[in-house]
Amino acid sequence: MALFTGKGDGGTTKLFDSPQGVRVSKSSPIFEALGMLDELNTITGWCKVACGDRQFHDQRYDVLLRNVQDHLFTVQAEVAGAPKNVPAESAAHLSALIDSIEKELPPITTFLVPGGTELSARLDIARAVTRRVERRIVTLHESGDRTVSETSRAYLNRLSSFFYALVRYTNYVSGVSESPPNYQ
Length: 184
Fold this sequence. Notes:
By secondary structure, the chain is mainly alpha-helical. The protein has helices at residues 29-49, 61-79, 88-103, 118-143, 150-173, and strands at 12-13, 24-25, 55-56, 59-60. It has one domain (28-173): Cobalamin adenosyltransferase-like (Hypothetical Protein Ta1238, Chain: A). The chain is 58% helix and 4% strand. A two-stranded antiparallel sheet has the order 1-2. The protein is elongated and about 55 Å long. The chain starts with 11 loop residues before the first strand and ends in an 11-residue tail after the last helix.
């Protein structure tokens, strides 16, 4: 596969489900969503390389994050018109992980200021970007430009909570105290 073909120089490209010879403007909301998913996948990789040997119980962070990346590729493929979607079990698995992590942590009583460790700060960026991606995907879905499955949308909704759970757990096991905002 070539790194470039030059076919998109005029501002158009093809989707998986584009009819033969039909190109779509890169200004389409579909490409905005695809770009945001790509950004989130890249940030997830940036988090992954900072994990070292961190684990939650017997599950390595880097393996969990690689699994997230594979799911993000699935959502990208779906948005690009491929007959793919995230299985319902994947959102359920994230829910179970979040519940398990939450049981290890003190309850949340307020908003918390991001940034405790290098890794938790990166995970907080991933959490915030996930929320932006989810909003874009919902907007795209509601516009009718592209149907995005309920299971993929549920996965993205759960993913931001998963990142937040990892943020809190990372700070907790690192001995970093959570700090509420001062609202000055």
